[in-house]
């Protein structure tokens, strides 16, 4: 499935969905993801998901490990993390990552459930 098709499909889903390259740089984000981060989807392009300011340092390390495992094994995984919202409120959410093959470089499909 082409990256553009995947991005189009994700706009219909209410959970936050990101596609990232193997280094965690955001390639596509649906409207729920843009709302969560507090930026327009286009403005997030190429930013590292772990540097968006919504994860604590400890959770960012857990997520980086989750990404590495998904990419190296092909097995999807999940972690419960604390997210800092735009209003400063912190809430527990489940983040899931799975590796996709879209062209030459592996991609990550990342969802944050609400």
The number of helical runs is 4
Based on the structure, what is the oligomeric state of the protein chains? single chain
Average pLDDT figure: 89
Helix content: 25-40%
If strands are numbered along the chain, what order do they take across the biggest sheet?
2-1-5-4-3
Percentage beta strand: 25-35%
Structural class: alpha+beta
For the report, how would you describe the main beta sheet?
A: 5 strands, antiparallel
Question: What's the order of the H and E elements?
Answer: HEEHHHEEE
In one word, what is the shape? globular
Q: How many runs of DSSP E, i.e. beta strands?
A: 5
The value of Rg in angstroms is: 13 Å
Span between N and C termini?
A: 26 Å
Sequence-ordered SSE layout with sheet pairings:
Blueprint: H1 3-10, E1 16-21, E2 26-29, H2 31-37, H3 41-44, H4 57-73, E3 77-84, E4 90-101, E5 106-112
Antiparallel strand pairs: 1-2, 1-5, 3-4, 4-5
